[in-house]
Amino acid sequence: MTTTIAVDAMSGDRGTEVTVPASLSILRKDKALKLLLVGDVEKIKEELGDYSDVAQRVEIQAASEIVEMDEPPALALKKKKDSSMRVAIDMVKAERAQAAVSAGNTGALMATSRFVLKMIPGLKRPAICGELPTLSGHVRMLDLGANVECGPDMLRQFAIMGSVLASEVDGIEEPSIGLLNIGAEDIKGSEVVKQASKLIADSGLNYHGYVEADEIYSGRVDVIVSDGFSGNVSLKTSEGVAKFIMGVMREEFAKNLITKLVALIALPIMRAAGMRMDPRRYNGASLLGLRGTVVKSHGGADVLAFECAITDAAKQAKMSVPDRISAAVERQLESFESQTSS
Amino acid sequence: MTTTIAVDAMSGDRGTEVTVPASLSILRKDKALKLLLVGDVEKIKEELGDYSDVAQRVEIQAASEIVEMDEPPALALKKKKDSSMRVAIDMVKAERAQAAVSAGNTGALMATSRFVLKMIPGLKRPAICGELPTLSGHVRMLDLGANVECGPDMLRQFAIMGSVLASEVDGIEEPSIGLLNIGAEDIKGSEVVKQASKLIADSGLNYHGYVEADEIYSGRVDVIVSDGFSGNVSLKTSEGVAKFIMGVMREEFAKNLITKLVALIALPIMRAAGMRMDPRRYNGASLLGLRGTVVKSHGGADVLAFECAITDAAKQAKMSVPDRISAAVERQLESFESQTSS
């Protein structure tokens, strides 16, 4: 069965220059994929070049506007009804695509997705869920920045959504859930985190309790739940630390002729190590909680990274993640009702 | 002039095994330093061995109790009045020492310091300020976990305290201050962060606005202000990422005979790089806002790391950091009053 993904072709720092080559590349690899490229038809066609080999699986959908990276979400939602972002999400709503991918303005993407697709009943707010590497595989973490302030019940909902994603897309049975806190002891942490911990513990999920941020990359749990502020701080800190460590390495290896020679010899090993940690391979964060699949790519994504975001969207679309989340939320509600009525 | 530091000799995962050798080592390097070793006299003496060369600069102060790492702070404060931690802080209060160093329970150290030494007038809560490496030097960041929830005015106070520390101890004129947020745009972030930004901008400090967590290690600013939850998440994430990257490197270099050989050749360079990032060299976080200097060492500190914490305390004591913070707070109040009365 074919999966159709709507691609916001105008999004990201480099627009069609990245989105179109990435689309062509993934189409050539995945024969069961169909893409709807949304945006400026002329620009898209120009970038497509000769695509006769995949032409039956490409459709171009015109959209006359572009949401700017620094545009206030509410304004984008109100004024730009023919933006490439909006039209891509409309395609999902109209069931012409099973998922949308955009490298655009996160806030606008959130607001537009929520407005067009609506939330799954029982869920309050969408969360951004990302994939991070660990020594033994990877971990899913949410929220990475959609919700600056989160109450205990929102954190419980994130736990459910993350659990579904890890079980459906990663194939993990009963994924283990950790709640981000600043101390493993019960006495630490904010009131919100403490209350959320109780709610998640009662939710029937495979809850492992608090995790501290130094355990994120240890692979101790499959899913990490946090509010959007801390989640985003953690994600961005990781990028900064990785850059810093690589910077120091580079300086030390560039010190003199001998160190440069050693660098040359060590290069293939360093490259192999770099590959395993390559953030491009983890590009593509899921907007969970919506009645449709939307994946957010990093704005600065290159072709490889944007390709990964499309692949991620295709996987989620195939596994009908929104339906699974909806079912999980219903089960939770039923079990809660049977508990309170008994 | 001699500086006297009170050392909680029983603190940390390994107690006197680490604190006493570290004390001896730093005494042999810094002839202007005097140490008060606080704790179990027998154990301290046993660990001291032959210390005749520095004996005039060592004093042992008996304390019969130890605060456990997982002991609730309020309980430690109430019940253990003769703990090594409490007595070390008492020494500062009694002006027998200019600073105290402990690798013990952070919460108990905070509560005890606050109870014994009191806050500087005009400041609400102490903050934990740490030093982190950057490519060009280092950055000071606070709060790293003392205050889970922080209002806008607390964040402004942290900015003042961090600025004083960076100017007095690091010798930076008008240190640049950044406020941790999840987006550089004005529209992002919580209400608290937005309000804090306005307060800091009006404070007369060298305020550079918002910084995202990926800029912490870039050295863009000298001081980073955040609430204790995000600050701790960022700090712990950094530890986790560093461990993860080193783990991947180790695995790749250990893959086969050839990679192991390359590792051997690259070892001195990797070691030089490692030295520059060595967290032990950055051990010692300052508890700022108190009427005395207290430095918290990592619980798992080894001899070198604990030595760094003592050095840090000595520097702050020499520069009378609490007095400088007090003066800065007064200046702020005066300028505020003259602004409102004009």
Q: Most extensive chain contact?
A: A-B, 60 and 60 residues
Multimeric organization? homodimer
SS field, number of helical segments of chain A: 11
Structural class of chain A: alpha/beta
Going by CATH, the architecture of the largest domain in chain A would be 3-Layer(aba) Sandwich
CATH fold description of the largest domain in chain A: Isopropylmalate Dehydrogenase
Helical content of chain A stands at 40-55%
Explain the overall architecture.
The structure is a homodimer of 342-residue chains. With 342 residues, chain A is of the alpha/beta class. Chain A is built from eleven helices and eleven strands. Chain A folds into two domains: 1-121 and 289-321, Isopropylmalate Dehydrogenase (3-Layer(aba) Sandwich), CATH 3.40.718; 124-286, Isopropylmalate Dehydrogenase (3-Layer(aba) Sandwich), CATH 3.40.718.10. An eleven-stranded mixed β-sheet of chain A has the order 3-2-1-4-11-10-5-6-9-7-8, with helices on both faces. In chain A, helix 1 packs across helix 2 and helix 6 crosses helix 11. Chain A is globular and about 60 Å long. At the A-B interface, helix 8 and helix 9 of A face helix 8 and helix 9 of B.
